Amino acid sequence: MASSTLLKSDAIMEQMKLHMSTDAGKQLVKKIGLVYQINIAPKKIGFNEKSFVVDLKKGEVKEGTYEDGKPDATFSFTDDDFVKVATGKMNPQIAFMRGAMKIKGSISAAQKFTPDIFPKPSKM
């Protein structure tokens, strides 16, 4: 795990942590109620990935892999592609079709992974 590597995605995940404590974040927990693990690679998926858990059951975001069983869905991105999806510049379905995002786990859970779960760029 390349935790010394600073990713653009780190800032988005920090915003997500704050977002979870807001009313909008609490609504996401009620609406989605799933756990996502997001693996972000600096350049190439599968290499030097940094993992984050976006727990929309408990309403928390933390660095590292999910330890309470298996996440509902796991996504792998490069740093640049994650930023595009999180900021709404790339549709998750398009990212998947182009190979910019890899998914493991429940496809129905993965379909609930939309840019709406991230704080709006104006807050970032």
Topology:
Blueprint lengths: L7 H13 L2 H9 L3 E7 L8 E6 L4 E4 L9 E6 H8 L5 H6 L3 E5 L1 H5 L13
Parallel strand pairs: 1-4
Antiparallel strand pairs: 1-2, 2-3, 4-5
Task: Explain how this protein is built.
The protein is built from 5 helices and 5 strands; from the N terminus they run ααββββααβα. The chain has a 5-stranded mixed β-sheet with strand order 3-2-1-4-5. By secondary structure, it is α+β, with helices and mostly antiparallel strands. The protein has helices at residues 8-20, 23-31, 79-86, 92-97, 107-111, and strands spanning 35-41, 50-55, 60-63, 73-78, 101-105. It is globular and about 35 Å long. It has a single domain, classed as SCP2 sterol-binding domain (Nonspecific Lipid-transfer Protein, Chain A), CATH 3.30.1050.10. It holds the Pfam family SCP2. Residues 19-114 form the SCP2 domain. This is Non-specific lipid-transfer protein-like 1.
